UniProtKB/TrEMBL annotation:
<protein>
    <recommendedName>
        <fullName>HXXXD-type acyl-transferase family protein</fullName>
    </recommendedName>
</protein>
<comment type="similarity">
    <text>Belongs to the plant acyltransferase family.</text>
</comment>
<dbReference type="GO" id="GO:0016747">
    <property type="term" value="F:acyltransferase activity, transferring groups other than amino-acyl groups"/>
</dbReference>
<dbReference type="Pfam" id="PF02458">
    <property type="entry name" value="Transferase"/>
</dbReference>
<dbReference type="InterPro" id="IPR050317">
    <property type="entry name" value="Plant_Fungal_Acyltransferase"/>
</dbReference>
Amino acid sequence: MGATGGDDHQAAGMFSVTVTEKEVVAAVLPMHEHWLPLSNLDLLLPPLDVGVFFCYKRPTSSTLTISSSSPATNSYNFRSMVGVLKKAMAQVLVSYYAFAGEVVANSVGEPELLCNNRGVDFFEAVADIELMDLNLYNPDDSIEGKLVPRKKNGVLAVQATQLKCGGLVVACTFDHRIADAYSANMFLVSWAETAQSKPISLLPSFRRSLLNPRHPGCVDASLDNMYVPVSTLSPLKEPAPDADQLVSRIYYVKADDLNQLQSLASSKGNKRTKMESFSGFLWQLVAKYCVIKDDDDDDDDNINNACKKMSKMGIVVDGRTRLSSDLERGDVMEAYFGNVLSIPYGGKTVRELIENPLSWVANEVHDFLENAVTKEHFLGLIDWVEARRPEPAVAKIYCGGGEEDGPAFVVSSGQRFPVSKVDFGWGVPLFGSYHFPWGGTAGYVMPMPNPAGNGDWLVYMHLLRGQLEFIETEASNFLRPLTCNYLRGLTASSN
């Protein structure tokens, strides 16, 4: 399952991972088989799998939580930890039964969820590497296809991997059509709570009627610029052998640097959020690279053409709080399990992005977001999908970033990523991250809080290799490659 190499190359990803056991974990209680339709917002997602993983140090007496399901022992080992994970999984799937089902096409070809308690593929594995030798900066090498499982069946797959140091990596891969990150976060916290014999703090709701279309529907014309029927898209071209490739990297950003960036992005009394500030900063960097890469021959025509290109940036918006303002939905949207997402985006010429100050770019981000953070936007999007069913549709920016266009990428806020709450009884993760090389032609970026809760960000980036190399050079004092020394520092400061 992984590459094999000597110790000298382990930090570069050359280590072996051996799957030792596979089991299908189903809900502990029998359940009535039934169909669960996908909502119109679920139907906007192509068949994509999302990965998430958590790294745990070897348990010690100070990190263990004593509960009825985790016996009072100072000798927690891999076998006992896997036992806790599986037992809690079987229990939590009673409430989160969607993750134990299968996606099947209905009579018109749309995906539906068959809730049949098929169960979750649970892999046990052993990795020939220590936690502090994992090259987390380069998840393509250390995580992809090794520590995060490939999901072949069902909706969710899980892998628990024992490390040489006694540490543990717990990773999940789930079908994005069934759950967004908010829903996955709910599940992860509930799974951890169940492992510690705590009551589930937020039970999921599968009330699809909450996202029913209106009759008659009401659709704003702007949605035709954001979403497109799949049939209108040109087939994706195979990249040339020498074309730049999308790769994944993980960085950290210090809290002080974020605060300073926010100050730079705010002007004339308009305070911009950290998310708006960071997104604008990244948008400018990606635009600069568009010019730099065409500047090799000092060809003014190439530079001018690059400056005319339209660069697009989208930001994932969660509609739960917007729809909660509706009395019919009330607070139940907080517990809603499924996709409640939209991806508004802005388009500016490369020249505009590189010649204006950061505050101008941050204002542009704020403006295109402002129109999509409303209840009416999400109700209109539900109606837009209804008018086109069963024709599948997708976010337009997902297919952006081609060579003819300017650069395109999407930023998804992971600030609610509950990494510090995913404690199964042997301590808070040393590190956790989403892993989402999503397969589109546009890039993908997700900033997340670090487990120490000190205001620093961890940033997963899936961009072109050339873009990342330029960003690392241009913003080396801001976006820093994630290192073991940084993680050790978090450990020391939390003790």
